[in-house]
C-alpha cells in the first residue's frame, strides 16, 4: 500500500475553498443577474456590457480565497510558514478593526436603531449591507498592522536572519505579503465596481426604515434630460420604485430649444407605466411661460391624473444618475458620464474623480505592503519601533493625501485623473524605492532622514 502523499493536505486547502466559493457563487450569481435584468428592462439607455459584468465579477470574487489557497499549496515550506504566521495575525487585525469601527459607528446610529421596532434585526441588516464598504475601508489598515506585527515578531526571534543565512533572499521571504496585497487589491477592485458604493445608499435606506420612513429610499434627486431639455426634481422615491411605486413631490421644468423656460409642472405623485409607456401625474399644477420675460400663467382644467405620453424618461433613468457620485459604481458612473458630456449643465469633476478613484484605490493595498515590508524588517538590535512608526506615518499620510486630492478633484481645482492617481504615483514610487533598498541591503533610515529637516 502506497503511503499517503504529503502534498494531499495542501491540495485540500484550495479544493475546500473552491467548494465554498462555488456554493456562495450559486447564491450570489443568479441574484445579481436578476438585478441586472431588472435594471436593463427599466433603463434602456445604459451601457449593457458594463452592467452585464456585474454577475461575472461577483462570481469571480467568490473564488478569490480559493486562489489564495492555491498559492499556498504551490508555495515552498518557507512561504507556507510565513503565510500561516501572517494569516492568523491578519484575521485578528480585521476582526479587531471591525469591532473598533462598529463601536464608533454605533455611536452615530444608536438612537435610530434603538427607536426601531427590532433594534437587533436592523443592526444585523445594516452592517450586513455595509460589509463591502467596510472591507474596502479596512483592508489597507489590516494589511499594514498585520505585516508590521508579523515581521516584527520574526525579527525579534532572529528568524529572518536565520532564513537569509540558509540562502533564501528577502524577496522570497516577503513574497506571501505581496500575494496577500495583490489578492486584497483584487477584492477591493471587484467591490468598488458596484457593491461598495451601493452600500452607502443601502445604509441610508435602512436607517430611514428604522426611523419609520420606509417609504423613502433617497430624498432630493435631480436629473437632466439634455436632448429633451427637461429637468426633473424628485423630492423622494420609494425603495421599490422600479416595480411601479410612485415618486413623490415631482417637479418637471421644460425648456424651449433656445434655453428659455416653457413650462413648470409640479405634482404630489408621479408614476410610470412600463406596459403603456406613459407617465401619470397626480394633483398637478402647471405654469406656462408664453414668452421670455412674461409672467407665468397657471393652466386651468388639468385632469387628475395628467397622462403624458412620448416622454422617454423612465424611473431608473431619473433616479440612478441623480444619486451622489460616491453611491454610484463603475457602470452607473459610465451611464452618468455618457448622458452628461462636456459642456453640459452638470459638473463632471466629481463623477470623473470617483470613476478614476474606483480603479486607483485598490492599488493602496499593494503600496501599503511595499511600504510596510522594508520598514518592518530589522536586522539590528535597536528594535522595530522606529520602522513601525515610520510605516504607520507614511501609510496614514498616503490616505490623508488621497482624501485631500479627492476633494480637489471634486471641486474642480485638480484634474480628476491626477486627483485619483497622483497619491498612488507619489507613495508608490517611494515604496518601490524603499523596497529596492531593503532588497539590496542598503540602509533605509539614513535615506529617510535626508527628507526630515535637522533640528536647529
UniProtKB/TrEMBL annotation:
Pfam families: LptF_LptG. The keyword Transmembrane helix applies. One of its GO terms (biological process) is lipopolysaccharide transport. It is a multi-pass membrane protein. Its main location: membrane. The chain crosses the membrane at residues 55-74, 86-104, 134-152, 173-195, 359-379, 386-406, 418-435. GO terms for cellular component: ATP-binding cassette (ABC) transporter complex. Keywords: Cell membrane, Membrane, Transmembrane, Transmembrane helix. InterPro entries: LptG/LptF_permease. It is found in: Cell membrane. PANTHER family: LIPOPOLYSACCHARIDE EXPORT SYSTEM PERMEASE PROTEIN LPTG, SLR0882 PROTEIN-RELATED. This is YjgP/YjgQ family permease. It comes from Luteolibacter luteus.
Amino acid at each position: 500500500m502506497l503511503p499517503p502523499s504529503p502534498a494531499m493536505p495542501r491540495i485540500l486547502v484550495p479544493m475546500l475553498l473552491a467548494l465554498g466559493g462555488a456554493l456562495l457563487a450559486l447564491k450570489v450569481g443568479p441574484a445579481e443577474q436578476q438585478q441586472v435584468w431588472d435594471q436593463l428592462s427599466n433603463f434602456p439607455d445604459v451601457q449593457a456590457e458594463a452592467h452585464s459584468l456585474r454577475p461575472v465579477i461577483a462570481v469571480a470574487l467568490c473564488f478569490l480565497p480559493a486562489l489564495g489557497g492555491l498559492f499556498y499549496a504551490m508555495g515552498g515550506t518557507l512561504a507556507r510558514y510565513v503565510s500561516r504566521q501572517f494569516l492568523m495575525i491578519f484575521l485578528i487585525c480585521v476582526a479587531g478593526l471591525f469591532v473598533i469601527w462598529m463601536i464608533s459607528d454605533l455611536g452615530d446610529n444608536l438612537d435610530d436603531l434603538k427607536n426601531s421596532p427590532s433594534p437587533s434585526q436592523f443592526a444585523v441588516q445594516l452592517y450586513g449591507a455595509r460589509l463591502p464598504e467596510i472591507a474596502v475601508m479596512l483592508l489597507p489598515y489590516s494589511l499594514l498592522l498585520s505585516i508590521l506585527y508579523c515581521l516584527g515578531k520574526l525579527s525579534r526571534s532572529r528568524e529572518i536572519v536565520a532564513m537569509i543565512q540558509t540562502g533564501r533572499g528577502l524577496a522570497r521571504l516577503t513574497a506571501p505579503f505581496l500575494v496577500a496585497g495583490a489578492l486584497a487589491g483584487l477584492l477591493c477592485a471587484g467591490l468598488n465596481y458596484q457593491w461598495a458604493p451601493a452600500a452607502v445608499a443601502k445604509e441610508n435606506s435602512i436607517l430611514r426604515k428604522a426611523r419609520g420612513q420606509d417609504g423613502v429610499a433617497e430624498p432630493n434627486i435631480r436629473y437632466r434630460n439634455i436632448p429633451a431639455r427637461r429637468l426633473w426634481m424628485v423630492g423622494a422615491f420609494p425603495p421599490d420604485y422600479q416595480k411601479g411605486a410612485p415618486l413623490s413631490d415631482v417637479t418637471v421644468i421644460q425648456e424651449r430649444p433656445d434655453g428659455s423656460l416653457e413650462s413648470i409642472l409640479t405634482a404630489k405623485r408621479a408614476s410610470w407605466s412600463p406596459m403603456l409607456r406613459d407617465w401619470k401625474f397626480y394633483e398637478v399644477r402647471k405654469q406656462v411661460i408664453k414668452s421670455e420675460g412674461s409672467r407665468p400663467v397657471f393652466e386651468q382644467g388639468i385632469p387628475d391624473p395628467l397622462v403624458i405620453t412620448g416622454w422617454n424618461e423612465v424611473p431608473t433613468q431619473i433616479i440612478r444618475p441623480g444619486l451622489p457620485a460616491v453611491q454610484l459604481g463603475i457602470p452607473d458612473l459610465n451611464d452618468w458620464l455618457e448622458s452628461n458630456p462636456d459642456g453640459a449643465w452638470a459638473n463632471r469633476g466629481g463623477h470623473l474623480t470617483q470613476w478614476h478613484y474606483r480603479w486607483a484605490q485598490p492599488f493602496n493595498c499593494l503600496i501599503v505592503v511595499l511600504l510596510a515590508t522594508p520598514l518592518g524588517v530589522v536586522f539590528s538590535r535597536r528594535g522595530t519601533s522606529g520602522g513601525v512608526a515610520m510605516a504607520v506615518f507614511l501609510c496614514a499620510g498616503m490616505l490623508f493625501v488621497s482624501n485631500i486630492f479627492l476633494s480637489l478633484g471634486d471641486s474642480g481645482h485638480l484634474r480628476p485623473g491626477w486627483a485619483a492617481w497622483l497619491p498612488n504615483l507619489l507613495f508608490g514610487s517611494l515604496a518601490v524605492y524603499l523596497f529596492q533598498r531593503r532588497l539590496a541591503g542598503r540602509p533605509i533610515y539614513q535615506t529617510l532622514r535626508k527628507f526630515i529637516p535637522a533640528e536647529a
